[in-house]
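Chapter summary example.
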Amino acid sequence: MTQRRRYQNKHPYFITTKTINNLWMFENEQYATILYNKIICISKYYKANLFSFCIMPDHLHIMIKFAKENDISFYMRDLKSLFVKEIREKFNFETIFWGKRFYDQIINNENHYNNIEIYIKNNYIKYNLLEKYKTFPYFYRKEEHFLWVRV
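The structure predicted for these 151 residues follows.
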């Protein structure tokens, strides 16, 4: 049975999705670059506020706030399918790329937001990728931050 979810547009989301069988597909720089550009492009299309993201060898983290309540599922569907369509066309890629699901959390306070931002940025360290990546080539962070309204 499909899990029913309630989505909102008041707070940002922290989204994680993985490659099939946790394969390190994004070690391929061409795939990672295409995904980076797709995230930027699709976020603009959805008029979403993209705060940060990090492309890891086998997964992706995104921190984003949507304009409409149900945009999260459509956004992830479009991101995954348009990315795969492009790599299939360019590289004759035939196998399944993404895992079936994505995971999301609502970021409902400033402390949670700050912790997620630190987690996303430090993911390269967690995976011992600092030697390979002296800079973080597939990390994005918007300079202006989400402002919490204090009541």
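To summarize the output: Residues 71-91 form the longest helix (21 residues).
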